[in-house]
Design a protein that fits this description.
Layout (H helix, E strand, L loop, with lengths): L7 H16 L10 E9 L5 E2 L1 H8 L6 E14 L3 E12 L7 E12 L9 E7 L3 H13 L2
Parallel strand pairs: 1-6
Antiparallel strand pairs: 1-2, 3-4, 4-5, 5-6
Organism: Colletotrichum chlorophyti
Protein name: SnoaL-like domain-containing protein
InterPro entries: NTF2-like_dom_sf
């Protein structure tokens, strides 16, 4: 799907596609939205460079999640290839006896590849959020299930 969105509706559709890939909890699908040389700055983690490094940012926690859902709150395209956004991410920890939903607000900046076969894919993404609440719930769920 990746193509460079032009209109506001196209930006929202592009984000929805990206969220669906992330929400699948399957890092093998990431090459559908990230360029091979993409860079990701997620929360307080060091910058991950390249698709394999980006997969490694998420791979440790994805198996501990039973659910993840991104909801775009606001998004704007600036210039040819920048998207600024705010979103809410809802998580559920696998094995949580209460099946509690953890909602975390997030903001982000995406820079898109503009040329070549990877046009429309993520060249760089910065995600600003406090993911401590879900990490705490994952740790608690792990204890409940041992």
């Amino acid at each position: 799907m990746p193509s460079i969105p032009s209109t506001h509706d196209e930006v929202l559709a592009w984000l929805q596609h990206s969220w669906e890939i992330h929400d699948s909890l399957d890092v093998t699908k990431f090459d559908d939205v990230y360029s091979k040389g993409a860079q990701l700055k997620f929360a307080n983690h060091p910058v991950a460079e390249g698709i394999d490094a980006i997969r490694q940012v998420f791979a440790p926690n994805f198996p501990s999640l039973s659910y993840m859902k991104h909801t775009t709150r606001q998004a704007d395209k600036v210039g040819d290839n920048h998207i600024w956004l705010s979103a809410e991410i809802t998580y559920r920890a696998k094995g949580d006896p209460e099946n509690r939903e953890i909602n975390i607000p997030a903001a982000g900046h995406v820079t898109l590849v503009t040329e070549g076969e990877e046009a429309g894919k993520i060249a760089q993404m910065e995600v600003f959020l406090d993911h401590a609440p879900i990490l705490e719930r994952l740790a608690a769920a792990a204890k409940w299930n041992t």
